[in-house]
Amino acid sequence: MNSPVPATDVTIEVDGRTHTVRIDNRVTLLDLLREHLHVTSPKKGCDHGQCGSCTVLLDGRRAISCLTFAVAQDGTRVTTAAGLPEGDALHEMQEAFVEQDAFQCGYCTPGQICSAVAMLDEVKAGQPSFVTENLEADPELTDEEIRERMSGNLCRCAAYPNIVAAIRQAANP
């Protein structure tokens, strides 16, 4: 005897478009985006929250979508790397990634870009990281700070020096 699978109606805004879907309560946000809404910018890398390829912005804050239940995001605004640009122009972080050649295979790039955008917001808000020396002052965006704050996003092609350069460029337009 099988029990019915619990399902819930979820309304979620993704990259400026509102969607209402009925989903199994066990579906992750990543699977909702990719398999139900066909939003393919966030990638399924490890599916264990260790690589950051699936990073998206939830109401402006970075989140690992493979570890986030979709039902918990009812009413949330999700922004993927594809939803960052306004109009036809790339977001300044996307431009910096292109100009600094901050990708090779590109698989991790959408997650890297979302994480970098949120990371700059965290720095602007004065949030310290593990390597911030002076907790009384606003964090200085050194290469060490960038690397620490981006440590949850892995790049199997090892484009890290260019990723750091791109973030530095976007932080200082």
Automatic annotation (TrEMBL):
Record keyword Metal-binding present: yes
The pathway noted for it is: Alkaloid degradation; nicotine degradation
Cite a single GO MF annotation: 2 iron, 2 sulfur cluster binding
Keywords for the protein's UniProt record, in alphabetical order: 2Fe-2S, Iron, Iron-sulfur, Metal-binding, Oxidoreductase
Please give the superkingdom of this protein's source. Answer: Bacteria
Q: One Pfam family from the UniProt entry?
A: Fer2
Q: What is the name of this protein? A: 2Fe-2S iron-sulfur cluster binding domain-containing protein
InterPro entries named in the record: 2Fe-2S-bd, 2Fe-2S-bd_dom_sf, 2Fe-2S_ferredoxin-like_sf, 2Fe-2S_ferredoxin-type, 2Fe2S_fd_BS, Aldehyde_Oxdr_Iron-Sulfur, Beta-grasp_dom_sf
Look up keyword DNA damage and say if it applies.
no
Stretches assigned to the 2Fe-2S ferredoxin-type domain: 8-84
Q: Which organism is it from?
A: [Mycobacterium] manitobense
